[in-house]
Design brief:
The protein is an alpha/beta fold and about 700 residues long. About 60% of the residues lie in helices and about 5% in strands. The protein contains 31 helices and nine strands. The two termini are about 50 Å apart.
């Protein structure tokens, strides 16, 4: 028997699915789209259950809604379990009224009713069942109560007589339509014909069109509006008949929102929280765990090297295993400790309900540049690593917004880019290294905003730029769910990114170890990689002022992992054992001895904005939906990086040469900053109509 779970986002649907399947679900993608689907078997039964994407209706306003409706029509499930969030019952029951129009058996699982009761509101599930005409079971997916009775009902063949939602004229029209239609779910299709849903035009006929026209004349308005209004009127009647309220003190969530959504302190609190997330994942704890993994990898490498030499393995094979395979796996494992902590922090923010508040806080600015508040989440995750940040863009419903976020997320300075910034800023700018490092972060923010504005104007013109969400109650995270969520994300990262980095590490090893005559162990200047670097070094001339093959090769190796840019420079300079000594890497006579402050800054800019590592490129391909789109995105990122680096070097080198005065550059920078601020203020100015701002002047919230 086929069973599907249908419900709003944040309704507890995934928690219930994990409990029903024992968390042994198969995860894949819906054909042609990047939204994940989960399928498994209900424990102790042969019933197959599929977790549909979180949706608010079966009208085709998003990819998720289209997928859900198509699945119900094409796959013909036997039972639909509709998860209804009791704390937002008006919103949840709108979808329920649509599901009631289907031929499929519907069971309503009233979730989180216990949380509602803490607010003094009680829902009588038997009365609700009577008013809807479908079976209703009160459950708690988090506390795992009431679920056994729900599972037993799946095999029950009996079904109740469903309630009448619309007035007599609408109901009579649907009965006529149902007689003419030769299709499943005829009641649902009839309603869609009244709403003039273009996806059901093939069912239209002269008789249907005549009836629709008469109804429009009677109501003197659009029938879609009439139907939506009558749904809400029905829901209001059902709610009044099945629930009652008693006086209760202000809830904990309401008290917390007075702090976390306060007009004056919301943003400072957000900044502190995100600083702590970054500090824990990438700072002290993250660095300590990375060092531990590094020591472990070195130990494995040394042991493997000694073991292979002991059994007489050839030098080439030994180098391949130690310098290629183990080094590649070590690069992947180097990300994992930081990712675990980062995913843990993000998961805690999500499950407590605070992440929804973050998205709402920054929605106003993001809407103006073609994104929404949800884009903030991938950007936050991307500060640790671009791969999970890009993967996080799938939470965005609008396709164009999702693609824009995917392309812009790698511009966020991730932890892998920090070694490049630290090396160059520390050596070339000395006491001002902190200011230079900070300037790159502000540079990245400005580039993201300007790029989004340009993309919205010339490429992605169909962005909805709207973020509507009902804030969920604050909840105590479930340790089981959080750990499972972190585990799944880490495993996904290792599988999707680790394999790419491993393969590319082996390729880099091969190119550095052999000449084009296939001679092993040649001087690095005669290696294939050096020869390739000499062929492409002209590309870097406008940003470096010279043909530097070492810089070209290092930038290419950054495709494997950005922090390997520094490692590559150390190897090329003949100082692989001491990566941190900038004085030695940039010493006169080495491949990088001709670097200046201007070329150093431009090289940092290029590596900051150019195509990300192969792991992130692989994630972009997956999220954008194809190789061609991924190549276009990578080209945009690299061209943008090249242009910015060239401008930086050309200005910086002229300052060094005394051709232009630093004061003139500062004046120009101030003018640009003023113009930039004016533009941003125009973008976030008060809307003419009340939008989704939680504390706008119109509604005084």
């Amino acid at each position: 028997m086929k069973v599907v779970l249908v419900g709003n986002q944040n309704s507890g649907k995934t928690t219930l699915f994990n409990y029903l399947t024992g968390m042994n679900a198969k995860i894949g993608n819906w054909p042609g789209v990047t939204i994940e689907k989960k399928t498994g078997k209900i424990k102790g039964t042969e019933n197959e259950i599929t977790d549909l994407p979180g949706i608010y209706s079966l009208s085709p306003y998003s990819t998720e809604e289209e997928i859900s409706r198509q699945f119900i029509f094409d796959e013909k499930p036997d039972v639909i379990i509709n998860i209804v969030d009791a704390t937002a019952i008006e919103r949840s029951l709108y979808l329920t009224t649509q599901l009631m129009e289907l031929d499929t058996k519907v069971i309503v699982a009233l979730n989180m009713a216990d949380m509602l009761e803490k607010k003094g509101i009680t829902i009588d599930e038997k009365e609700l069942e009577k008013k809807l005409g479908v079976k209703v079971f009160k459950i708690s997916a988090l506390k795992e109560t009431g679920i056994d009775e729900l599972v037993k009902e799946i095999d029950n063949k009996e079904d109740l007589k469903r309630a009448i939602v619309f007035d007599k004229e609408i109901e009579d029209a649907t009965k006529v339509f149902m007689q003419d239609l030769k299709t499943g779910h005829s009641k649902f299709v009839s309603i869609k014909l009244l709403e003039k849903d273009s996806r059901f035009e093939k069912y239209e006929s002269t008789r249907i069109n005549e009836i629709t026209k008469k109804l429009e004349e009677k109501y003197d308005t659009d029938l879609e509006e009439v139907i939506a209004t009558e749904r809400y009127e029905f829901i209001e009647k059902v709610k009044k008949a099945s629930s009652y309220k008693k006086e209760i003190k202000e809830s904990a969530s309401d008290k917390l929102d007075k702090i976390f959504l306060n007009k004056w302190i919301a943003f400072p609190i957000f900044a502190i929280i995100m600083f702590l997330v970054y500090y824990l994942s990438v700072g002290v704890i993250g660095s300590a765990t990375v060092d531990m993994i590094g020591v472990l990898t070195d130990s494995i490498s040394e042991w493997t090297l000694e073991s292979l030499e002991l059994i007489g393995t050839s030098e080439i094979l030994t180098s391949l295993v130690v310098d290629g395979i183990i080094a590649g796996v070590g690069a992947v494992l180097g990300f994992v400790p930081q990712l675990i902590i980062l995913f843990l922090c993000i998961s805690l923010l999500e499950t407590t309900g605070y992440m929804s508040r973050i998205a709402l806080l920054l929605d106003k600015l993001f809407r103006r540049i073609g994104l929404s508040g949800k884009s903030l989440i991938p950007f936050i995750v991307g500060s640790g690593c671009s791969v999970p940040g890009i993967m996080g863009a799938r939470i965005i419903e609008n396709e164009d917004e999702r693609k824009m976020t995917t392309i812009l997320t790698p511009f966020i300075p991730c932890s892998a880019k920090l070694p490049i910034i630290a090396l160059f800023a520390g050596y070339f700018f000395g006491e001002n290294s902190g200011l230079i490092s900070a300037s790159l972060y502000f540079f990245a923010i400005a580039v993201i905003i300007i790029s989004a504005i340009l993309m919205k104007k010339f490429i992605f013109r169909k962005t909805s730029s709207t973020y509507i969400s009902e804030l969920p109650e604050y909840k105590v995270p479930s340790p089981k769910y959080v750990l499972k969520d972190v585990f799944d994300k880490v495993i996904a990262f290792i599988k999707r990114a680790g394999s790419v980095i491993l393969l590319c590490s082996i390729i880099i090893w091969f190119l550095l170890s052999f000449s084009f005559k296939m001679e092993y162990g040649v001087d690095i200047e005669e290696s294939m990689l050096a020869q390739i670097g000499n062929k492409i070094s002209w590309i870097f001339y406008p940003m470096l002022g010279e043909n530097n093959w070492g810089a070209a090769v290092s930038a290419i190796q950054g495709l494997v992992a950005k922090e390997q840019v520094v490692s590559s420079m150390a190897v090329i300079a003949g100082l692989a054992e001491d990566v941190e000594e900038g004085a030695e890497i940039f010493a006169k006579g080495t491949a990088f001895g001709s670097f200046s402050a201007a070329s150093a800054y431009s090289f940092m800019v290029f590596n900051l904005f150019s195509a990300p590592c192969f792991g992130a490129i692989g994630a972009m391909k997956r999220e954008l939906g194809g190789t061609k789109k991924m190549l276009k995105a990578v080209t945009f990122q690299t061209v943008c990086a090249w242009l910015l680096a060239v401008v930086v070097y050309q200005i910086g080198s002229r300052i060094e040469q005394g051709v232009i005065n630093m004061a003139n550059v500062l004046v120009g920078g101030v003018i640009f900053a003023i113009v930039f601020v004016i533009v941003i203020r125009q973008l976030v100015k008060k809307d003419s109509e009340c939008a989704s701002c939680p504390y706008c002047d119109s509604c005084k919230k």
